[in-house]
Structure formats: structure tokens, C-alpha cells
Specification:
The protein has a domain at about 210-430: 2-Layer Sandwich (Alpha-Beta Plaits). The protein is built from 14 helices and 19 strands. The chain has helices spanning about 1-20, 50-65, 115-120, 140-145, 185-190, 220-230, 280-290, 295-310, 320, 350-365, 405-425, 440-445, 450-460, 470-475, and strands spanning about 30, 40, 45, 70, 85-90, 95-100, 105-110, 125-130, 160-170, 175-180, 200-210, 210-220, 240-245, 255-265, 315-320, 335-345, 370-375, 390-400, 430. Helix 10 (about 350-365) runs antiparallel to helix 11. The protein is globular and about 60 Å long.
Length: about 475
């Protein structure tokens, strides 16, 4: 009976915590993004449904000298989706599948469609996405605008699976953009954070759905680079991979576990390809992760819990199911604090050294680090603002921080110290997140940025398409 009572109490606390994260009543003209930092008054939000409507909005903005920002699911955290006094285009209703070629393995979708929409459409045909974020809630246009990457270690960042897209520019023209047509715009708009126009629709190349066996094993940060290069990358059967580094005080940045998805060709896809729904344990995990934000003992317990449920076990699942939402339990909302992402890319050979250098920084600055997920990103400098300057590990870091000015100043100081270490090891950082790095650090790590901004001036001289990211790093 005591166990049942404790369980009921936990469930009640989970429900209370869950409900309090959805407090309404915001000013509809006061706009921010997932970060909740730097809200500004905008002109209005327009849900977009038709191409003609988009062209009319661009024409109106040009004539009235207004600005336009472009938003999907609004999970960028650095002011990329809004701007003071701007018209904000809500692209989420613009979500139709326009064309599908099963034999050629391509699909064309409007930019407001999500990865979940694509997966639902192509799953019956035995096809899957090549590259996407770990969650499938994001829009295709948003993912292209940040040149997303994921857990696939064979197909590279998203730009490699984009065949073409149509772009509505500041002059009102819709251009077909590919590596052969209007090729100059391809690396600018892809990873261009909405500064070159509205991505109208996208043609993606697809791959075969497969059956994987998911297994996990423990490893140290010291051994991880060699483990990945010799046991993961060299194993052609492993198609997806991720790892997590311990942020628990008892094993802080020393212990890891790695999760591999090995293809099982003998198992028929049709036996396993029913798309899974949300995790049954979201609410309990949400509660436990909430404790993780506040207590060191909870960080230790949560780390032990992860390993208990993963190490020594195996799961059979398809590629489409492996690339579906996995972290709903991390959703969080508070009036005074928030979870903010920062992401660092470090050359594979410098992984251990980088970890050893940032460990004392994180401890000295007392940054509340909740999670580090590690992914592999192939060398790919096709995008103008490319982050993958070599074969790299991406360290996706989740911090919980107060939103006060003083706390944000402390956060800025700590993050800039980490960025200085990135510079030492020829690393880079991801641009969709809060702009803690300085302008000087941005220019050093992204040496092609000035050419990127000059191209912006050429294609959009009136600066019709604007966001706060532009002001942060070009407006100085």
C-alpha cells in the first residue's frame, strides 16, 4: 500500500507540474521565442496558407517599409523568428505534401509541414528521412533555415539531403533554388535563418526504412573518440548513433553511455513499422527531470536511472520510429527560469581535451547543466554558415538558468569562456541559440559571415526580412 501511495503522490505532483507549465494570458503582440529572452512588440502575426497571400504580404511590407520575420515551431532561441514592429509569418498552416516519387525516393512539401507529417506520409511506402533533429515536431522550413543535423552518422547535415527549394525573395519573385539553378542562393538560404526570404516548399531525397537493434553501453569520456572511430564508424551496420555525458556530480563529465542502432536486414520492416505514439512515461519522467533541475542528488539518481533502463538491453525498432520524438519530458516553463540550449562542435580528435578544459569552467561558473547529448557530424562546408569544419562531435548542452539580467550576465560570461576553448581546438558552435557568444567570437568562428551579410545586402537591400540574430551579429 505504501508503494501505491507513493506512486499516486508522484503522479499527482507530475500532473501539477505539467499543468503549471501552460499558463496563458500573454500579450499577443509581445513576441519572444522558446528562450523567453528579449520580448518585443511586433506588428502582427499572420498564419500563412497560400502563396498568393505570401506575395501580397511581401508587397505590402515593401511598400510600407515594414519588416518580415518567419516562424515555424519557434524553437530557435536567439531571436531568429521575430523582430521589433515586424510582420511575423506563422508558417505552420502552410503544410501540404505537394509531390511524392516512390521510385526516385523524393518528396516535395510546403515549408510549414513537420517531420512528423513527412514520416506519416512516407512510412507506408517503406521510406524514411535521411537527416532530421531527434524530435519530429519541427517544420521542414525551420530545419532547413538552421541546417539541422541528427543521429544519422552516414548522411551528414540536412543540406546534403535537400534537392531543391523555392524561395520567395524580397522583390516578390519566387525562384527555384538548387545546386544548378540560382545556385548562389542555395548555401545562403539553407542555414540562412530566414534572412534571404520565405522558403515556400522543399524537395527532399529519402532513404529506405530499416529495422534496427538499439543497444547501449557505458564508456568513459577519455575513451570515447577511439571507441567511436574504431567500433562505431568502422562498423557499416551501425547507421544511427548518439551518446550522453554524465552531468551528475558523482561522475561529472567522466562517464558516458553510447547508443547504437545496428541494421537487422533479416527482419522485415513491415513487422515493426507501425509509427509509435508518445512515450507512456512522459509525466513521471517530466517530474524526475524537474527534480534534476534543482538538486544534485537528483542528477545522480537520474543518471543512474538512465543507465539502468538502457545498459544491457536491446530494442528492435524501425528507422522512422528511431527518428521520432524522444524528449517531451524535458519540456519546461517557468516565469523566472528557463532551459536554454547551447551546442558546441569539436573535432573528433580533440574531444577529450575539450572536455577536460571546459569541466573546470562549468564548475567555477556554477552553470546548471542538465544534459549533454553527443552526436557525430560529417565534415560539410557547403552552407555559407557551416558549423562542420571537419568531422566533429556535436555536444548539445541543456542549461537551466534564471531569466534575470544578473543571471544572464553570469551565463554570458561562462559561455564565452567555453567559446574561447572552442577557438583553441578549432571548434565551432551552433547559431540557433541564445546569443551569448560575443561578436568577435562569432566572426572568428564563422569567417564567412561577412560575405554572408554582404550577400544579404545584395539580395535584400531594403532588409525586408529581418530578425534579432541579424542585429546581434551584423548590427555592430
Amino acid at each position: 500500500m505504501k508503494k501505491i501511495a507513493v506512486l499516486l503522490l508522484l503522479i499527482a505532483l507530475c500532473l501539477w507540474q505539467y499543468e503549471r507549465t501552460f499558463i496563458a494570458g500573454d500579450d499577443p503582440f509581445l513576441r519572444s521565442d522558446y528562450s523567453k529572452l528579449r520580448p518585443v512588440k511586433i506588428n502582427r502575426v499572420i498564419p500563412t496558407k497560400e502563396i498568393k497571400q505570401l506575395q501580397e504580404i511581401v508587397s505590402e511590407a515593401r511598400e510600407k517599409e515594414l519588416k518580415i520575420s518567419i516562424a515555424g515551431q519557434r524553437h530557435s532561441q536567439g531571436g531568429h523568428t521575430y523582430y521589433k514592429d515586424a510582420i511575423v509569418l506563422d508558417m505552420t498552416p502552410f503544410n501540404k505534401v505537394l509531390a511524392f516519387d516512390e521510385m526516385a525516393k523524393t518528396i516535395t512539401v510546403q515549408s510549414g509541414a513537420t517531420w512528423a507529417d513527412v514520416q506519416k506520409y512516407i512510412n507506408p511506402y517503406g521510406l524514411a528521412v535521411k537527416t532530421m533533429q531527434s524530435q519530429n515536431i519541427f517544420t521542414i522550413g525551420g530545419s532547413i533555415s538552421v541546417n539541422a543535423h541528427g543521429r544519422d552518422i552516414r548522411n551528414g547535415s540536412l543540406i546534403s539531403s535537400v534537392e531543391s527549394f523555392r524561395l520567395l525573395g524580397a522583390d516578390g519573385q519566387i525562384r527555384n533554388v538548387s545546386r544548378l539553378e540560382n545556385a548562389e542562393l542555395f548555401p545562403l538560404a539553407l542555414g540562412g535563418y530566414g534572412l534571404f526570404g520565405v522558403i515556400v516548399d522543399v524537395t527532399l531525397s529519402l532513404t529506405d526504412d530499416e529495422v534496427y537493434e538499439m543497444t547501449s553501453e557505458t564508456i568513459s569520456t577519455e575513451a570515447y573518440s577511439n571507441y567511436f572511430l574504431n567500433q562505431v564508424k568502422q562498423n557499416p551496420d551501425i547507421h544511427l548513433h548518439l551518446a550522453r555525458i554524465s552531468v551528475a556530480p558523482d561522475s561529472f563529465l567522466t562517464d558516458m553511455y553510447a547508443t547504437n542502432y545496428s541494421v537487422r536486414e533479416e527482419l522485415p520492416v513491415t513487422n515493426y513499422n507501425q509509427l509509435k505514439l508518445k512515450d507512456t512515461y512522459v509525466l513521471p519522467l517530466k517530474f524526475l527531470f524537474g527534480l534534476n533541475r534543482s538538486f544534485d542528488w537528483a542528477k545522480n539518481a537520474f543518471w543512474d536511472l538512465q543507465r539502468h533502463f538502457l545498459i544491457g538491453r536491446s530494442t528492435i525498432l524501425t528507422r522512422n520510429n528511431a527518428m521520432r520524438s524522444e524528449s517531451d519530458f524535458m519540456d519546461y516553463s517557468s516565469d523566472t527560469k528557463n532551459d536554454l540550449l547551447q551546442e558546441y562542435f569539436i573535432p573528433v580528435e580533440h574531444f577529450e581535451d575539450f572536455i577536460n578544459h571546459i569541466k573546470p569552467i562549468l564548475q567555477e561558473e556554477q552553470l546548471n547543466l542538465l544534459n549533454i547529448t553527443v552526436r557525430y557530424v560529417n565534415h560539410d562546408e557547403e552552407a555559407s554558415l557551416s558549423y562542420a569544419k571537419s568531422d566533429m562531435f556535436a555536444l548539445v548542452c541543456l542549461f537551466n538558468t534564471p531569466l534575470s539580467k544578473a543571471a544572464q550576465a553570469r551565463m554570458t560570461h561562462g559561455i564565452q569562456r567555453i567559446i574561447d576553448q572552442l577557438k583553441t581546438f578549432n571548434g565551432s558552435y551552433y547559431l540557433p541559440y541564445a546569443p551569448f557568444p560575443s561578436v568577435e567570437q562569432f566572426r572568428t568562428i564563422y569567417p564567412k559571415a561577412e560575405a554572408f551579410f554582404q550577400a544579404k545586402d545584395q539580395w535584400d537591400p531594403q532588409h525586408l526580412f529581418m530578425n534579432q540574430f541579424y542585429d546581434d551579429y551584423r548590427g555592430h
